[in-house]
Write a structure and sequence with these properties.
The protein is an alpha+beta fold. The protein contains 11 helices and 14 strands. It has a 5-stranded antiparallel beta sheet with strand order 2-1-7-6-5, sandwiched between helices. Strands 9-11-12-14-13 form a 5-stranded mixed beta sheet, covered by helices on one side. Strands 3-4 form a two-stranded antiparallel sheet. The longest helix has 33 residues, at 180-212.
């Protein structure tokens, strides 16, 4: 398909370029300015604008004479220059030997940051030393492939422990089948492992979905205060059993704490933070959940008086399957995915999650989401009979 599109584009653009260049044997007029190569014929321009692929036409001086809008959007073209040296090297090689080249390239998305673009590039010669580049952005497709590959690797690794545990417990139950007390004890442990296994699988699925989708498909108006109340309600029994007091401060109810997004995802993210705070706190301590409604952001702070996080661990706690205290995670049924889910939920809502922590003093996680801006009211329609006529 790419080859067919490239051939059609090359034919149209090549024809347009040829029409704009002097014919063979034509002599330049003395004193006349050089005939411009740009713009291309209207038909060629329409084709370039209609295609979703990135199209770039280079002249003999290595200048961009025409490009599709997507070329600028991806940062491949700046003014009349190619933004990446590797693309320019391909153009010069094709101009030199006239051979079509098809390559895969990984280039920087922009001048800042470390984000990369994965590109399929086809470079073909045109008339008069002009060169055509046809580029397909495969970044999203490759990202999905990587996530699926990581999913398989992570699942195979993380499921080993609970599956092995269930196997051993089943064997122990079989050996102790005549001891009803032992069977009852092993059955209880199997139930715990089964619950942990089910939660692990569900969180892997949820996280994979969040990583593939960059935004919320059908955002609705979400009351963050309600999400915070639901998150605390889910963990109230666990906190009570551990002797931990959970308090909420929801702020002025007259100030709307609303964002656009998915209420279930936001509640899940806040629940994960509260659960972490409870799990990493000792008895007779407090966990507080505070909601601040601002003009630009709605913030939720989850503060605990727990063990705290060492500075060396702060950059890693949002990684998938990272457990700062593996033994505690096993006791509490943690999967190592909770904070990774929080991070991606915030990102998919255009927000962020940050953390402050001091070993021995506790931690504060802060979620910030863009406030839903009010829609200006539509002015009422005044019937013609009520309108005042100015003489």
């Amino acid at each position: 398909m790419v080859a067919i599109v490239a051939a059609v584009v090359a034919l149209i653009v090549g024809f347009a370029v040829g029409r704009l260049l002097p014919g063979r044997g034509a002599r330049p007029v003395a004193g006349a300015p050089d005939r411009p190569v740009s713009p291309l014929a209207p038909a060629a321009s329409d084709v370039l604008d209609a295609l979703s692929s990135v199209i770039i036409v280079m002249n003999a001086s290595d200048k961009v004479v025409r490009s599709s809008p997507s070329a600028g959007a991806l940062g491949l073209v700046r003014n009349t220059e190619l933004a990446h040296v590797r693309l320019l090297e391909l153009v010069r090689a094709v101009r030199r030997d006239g051979e079509v080249r098809e390559v895969e390239l990984e280039v920087a998305r922009g001048p800042l940051g470390s984000a990369q673009l994965m590109l399929d590039v086809r470079v073909a010669p045109l008339r008069a030393q002009h060169v055509l580049l046809l580029v397909e952005d495969r970044t999203h497709a490759r990202r999905v492939e990587e996530i699926r590959r990581d999913f398989v690797v992570n699942v195979s690794h993380e499921l080993k422990t609970p599956v092995s545990g269930l196997t051993l417990l089943a064997e122990a139950m079989d050996e102790a089948r005549d001891d009803s007390e032992a069977v009852h004890r092993f059955a209880g442990r199997m139930q715990v492992e089964t619950t942990r296994l089910a939660r692990l699988v569900q969180e892997i699925v949820d996280l994979s979905r969040l990583q593939v989708d960059d935004a919320i498909d059908e955002p609705v108006l979400v009351d963050v205060r309600q999400c915070a109340k639901e998150a605390v309600g889910h963990l109230q029994l666990l906190a009570t059993d551990k002797g931990i007091t959970v308090t909420t401060a929801l702020g002025d109810p007259h100030l709307p704490a609303q964002v656009y997004g998915d209420p279930n995802l936001i509640t899940t993210a806040l629940r994960n933070l509260v659960e972490n705070a409870v799990n990493y706190s000792d008895s007779d301590t407090r966990v507080s959940v505070t909601v601040h409604a601002g003009s630009d952001f709605v913030s939720v702070l989850v503060k605990d008086q727990g063990t705290g996080i060492p500075p060396a661990e702060l950059d890693r706690i949002f990684e998938r399957f990272y457990r700062m205290d593996a033994a505690r995670s096993r006791r509490t049924g943690g999967t190592g995915l909770g904070l990774a889910i929080v991070k991606h939920v915030c990102a998919n809502h255009g927000g962020e999650v940050t953390v402050w922590s001091e070993p021995g003093q506790g931690s504060t996680f802060t979620v910030r989401l863009p406030t839903a801006q009010p829609v200006p009211p539509t002015p009422p329609v005044i019937p013609d009979t009520q309108r005042k006529v100015t003489p």
